[in-house]
């Protein structure tokens, strides 16, 4: 195991960097898209609700690999050439955004409807009360589940290995076939993944206990 | 247009359905295995047996925080070292069962914790032993609370079987890739078929979960504990 770290340290570090980069980009965009659809789903407008519902159900019920492969295979074929990393990140963003939307929606709906009524009756518009009254309370409440979503996102970023995204998992396969030591390579990579996810996971459990 | 429609010729559809059959077979086997082991592990973690619970908890945390693809590789390349060479189907069933059992265990633990301690105290006061109280009083209520979380975990499981194409499991994803690999005109129709087929399976599972929730979980308003359990499972 140690020899793997010594001989292939550079590759492993590159992979770790790509995994982190992809996860952070996907997290930011998934948060934006997910929150937007979550707000749409709680809006009084029926059309907006239906659109949000369809988006969430579609991306929640189709495997991440299918979405990612679609962007890797179909988009370059007909529309525009994109790298494996980009297609993986886009796929991951869309997939995660559906789950984040579900989480944020449950947060918004857990805020007492009286808050919205109170805010409206003091003269705030719908969007103002959403922005200043509802969302701050909803987000404080969904931080632990959102943390879990982020952990899932980091784990799911291993799908980049399918599309030559040069992430940790991809490097693992390269190193395994190069060094012929598949088990110790995968153990090294497992340790690196745990370094990313385990502290976050324990912190989220701590937070969950504190808030509950 | 006609070339595209050729994608849905009977031969291709039959080939896809064979793949879907493998997907369903692997999913059902791993759902059953992971449910059994998940409940056992979750209870073990909850009951605080000296050393054992701590070790089980640690192993569960490790498995939960690793990507599934890595666990698939571990079973596929690791088990031969232990003298058992699994074919892709067995390797994926074992990998999925191990991974999902850890997930289910965590849901079960959270579900038991969400039951008020008064239930256990009341049962003990009535003369039931600790294990009787756990089995007859606490677990049934906990499992009722956990249904949405567990079903959504199983939906993830069905979707995640597609990852096993990396060890050439002949599942739906793999067969679709073979078809569009032979004729690139069929790429979009194949992705459409994939999306539709996975969607039908997963969405009907989630409808089934809503039905179960209504049917069994009747008196239980969606409370804080449920939400936490629910979110712990979304993957």
Automatic annotation (TrEMBL), chain A:
InterPro entries: AA_ABC_transptr_permease_3TM (IPR010065), ArtM/GltK/GlnP/TcyL/YhdX-like (IPR043429), MetI-like (IPR000515), MetI-like_sf (IPR035906). GO terms for cellular component: ATP-binding cassette (ABC) transporter complex. It is found in: Cell membrane. It is a multi-pass membrane protein. GO terms for molecular function: transmembrane transporter activity. Its main location: membrane. Residues 16-204 form the ABC transmembrane type-1 domain. The keyword Ligase does not apply. The chain crosses the membrane at residues 16-40, 61-80, 183-203. The keyword Transmembrane helix applies. GO terms for biological process: amino acid transport. Keywords: Amino-acid transport, Cell membrane, Membrane, Transmembrane, Transmembrane helix, Transport. Belongs to the binding-protein-dependent transport system permease family. This is ABC transporter, permease protein. It comes from Lentilactobacillus hilgardii (strain ATCC 8290 / DSM 20176 / CCUG 30140 / JCM 1155 / KCTC 3500 / NBRC 15886 / NCIMB 8040 / NRRL B-1843 / 9).
Automatic annotation (TrEMBL), chain B:
One of its GO terms (biological process) is amino acid transport. This is ABC transporter, permease protein. Gene3D superfamilies: MetI-like. GO terms for cellular component: ATP-binding cassette (ABC) transporter complex. Belongs to the binding-protein-dependent transport system permease family. It comes from Lentilactobacillus hilgardii (strain ATCC 8290 / DSM 20176 / CCUG 30140 / JCM 1155 / KCTC 3500 / NBRC 15886 / NCIMB 8040 / NRRL B-1843 / 9). Signal peptide: none annotated. GO terms for molecular function: transmembrane transporter activity. The keyword Isomerase does not apply. It comes from the Bacteria. The gene is glnP. InterPro entries: AA_ABC_transptr_permease_3TM, ArtM/GltK/GlnP/TcyL/YhdX-like, MetI-like, MetI-like_sf. It is found in: Cell membrane. Keywords: Amino-acid transport, Cell membrane, Membrane, Transmembrane, Transmembrane helix, Transport. The chain crosses the membrane at residues 20-43, 55-77, 89-112, 133-155, 190-212.
């Amino acid at each position: 195991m140690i020899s793997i770290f010594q001989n292939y340290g550079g590759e492993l570090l590159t992979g770790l960097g790509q995994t982190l980069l992809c996860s952070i980009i996907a997290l930011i965009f998934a948060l934006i898209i997910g929150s937007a659809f979550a707000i749409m789903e709680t809006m009084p407008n029926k059309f907006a609700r239906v659109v949000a519902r369809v988006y969430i159900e579609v991306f929640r019920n189709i495997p991440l690999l299918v979405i990612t492969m679609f962007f890797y295979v179909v988009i370059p074929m007909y529309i525009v050439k994109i790298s494996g990393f980009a297609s993986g990140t886009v796929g991951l963003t869309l997939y995660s955004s559906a789950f984040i939307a579900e989480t944020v929606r449950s947060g918004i709906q857990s805020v007492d409807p009286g808050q919205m009524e109170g805010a409206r009756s003091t003269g705030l518009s719908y969007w103002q009360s959403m922005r200043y009254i509802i969302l701050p309370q909803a987000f404080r409440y969904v931080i632990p589940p959102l943390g879990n979503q982020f952990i899932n996102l980091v784990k799911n970023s291993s799908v980049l290995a399918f599309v030559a995204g040069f992430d940790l998992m991809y490097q693992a396969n390269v190193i395994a076939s190069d060094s012929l030591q598949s088990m110790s390579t995968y153990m090294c990579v497992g340790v690196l993944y745990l370094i990313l996810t385990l502290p976050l996971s324990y912190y989220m459990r701590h937070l969950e206990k504190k808030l509950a | 247009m006609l070339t595209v429609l050729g994608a849905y010729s009977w031969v291709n559809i039959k080939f896809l359905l064979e793949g879907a059959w493998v997907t369903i077979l692997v999913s059902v086997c791993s759902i059953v295995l992971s449910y059994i082991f998940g409940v056992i592990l979750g209870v073990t973690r909850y009951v605080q047996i000296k050393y054992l619970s701590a070790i089980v908890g640690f192993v569960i945390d490790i498995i939960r925080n690793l990507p599934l693809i890595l666990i698939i590789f571990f079973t596929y390349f690791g088990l031969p070292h232990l003298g058992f060479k699994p074919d892709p189907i067995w390797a994926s069933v074992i990998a999925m069962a191990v991974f999902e059992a850890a997930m289910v265990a965590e849901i079960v633990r959270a579900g038991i914790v969400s039951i008020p301690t008064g239930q256990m105290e009341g049962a003990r006061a009535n003369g039931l032993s600790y294990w009787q109280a756990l089995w007859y009083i606490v677990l049934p209520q906990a499992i009722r609370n956990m249904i949405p979380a567990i079903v959504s975990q199983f939906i993830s499981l069905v979707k995640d079987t597609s990852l096993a194409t990396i060890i050439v499991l002949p599942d739906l994803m793999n067969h679709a890739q073979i078809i569009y690999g032979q004729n690139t005109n069929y790429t979009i129709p194949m992705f459409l078929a994939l999306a539709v087929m996975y969607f039908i399976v997963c969405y009907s599972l989630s409808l089934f979960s809503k039905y179960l929730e209504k049917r069994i979980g009747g008196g239980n308003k969606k409370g804080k504990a449920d939400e936490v359990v629910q979110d712990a499972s979304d993957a």
